[in-house]
Amino acid sequence: MQEHNxxxxxxxDVRIQLLSVIAASADVTSFLCFHDVFTxxxxxxxxxxxxxxxxxxxxxxxxxLALPAFALGAIVAGAVQGESPRSANRVLALxxxxxxxxxxxxxxxxxxxxxxxxxDGMILCxxxxxxxxxxxxRQIDVAGVPSVVFTNTLTSIVLGAVRASKQKAxxxxxxxxxxxxxxxxxxGALLFAWLLQASPLLxxxxxxxxxxxxxxxxxxxxxxx
Length: 225
Fold this sequence. Notes:
Blueprint: H1 11-33, H2 42-54, H3 63-80, H4 88-109, H5 116-140, H6 151-166, H7 173-198, H8 200-219
Helix pairs in contact: 1-5, 1-7, 1-8, 2-3, 3-4, 3-5, 4-5, 4-8, 6-7, 7-8
């Protein structure tokens, strides 16, 4: 059974927070560099597809690629996952593969892909990785935080805060975990928006490095009897 610290955060909490930073990096980079598309926040892509339809430019919308790519990433991750807690390593390895391909495209083309197909390729790999990450987050299972979209998490935080206020009690552990993940996403968005200007090469390599840290923490997670 996983060991929990009632004051601080467990290894699982930290892993979810790191995955939230990775998701933020995907959304910030894709929105700023790939012409108004998200590779993690699929709700936003549905809105973008609706806008594209209303403007008569559906086929030129990158959201039309990101949405099925995300779903495909989740499907493949769901197919490789198993019942054992350690099977999360297979899903993590799948996400790492997609992130490595994504980074390799940046190393090859830089921030000026030679063709529209180059941009599509990077959107595809990023969205596949985020789809796999959505499955990985469910396997880690911290306070229902999906790490790739935070609308429901924000609602849960608000309800948790209201409940605590009514009971004149401190915030529950799940609410604190959700707040930490949301703040990690916000901090990641700020960090990567800055890195894209200050050090683009670091910005595109960092997600894979953070995922390796997630893997390391999983291997060294403390367990009880």
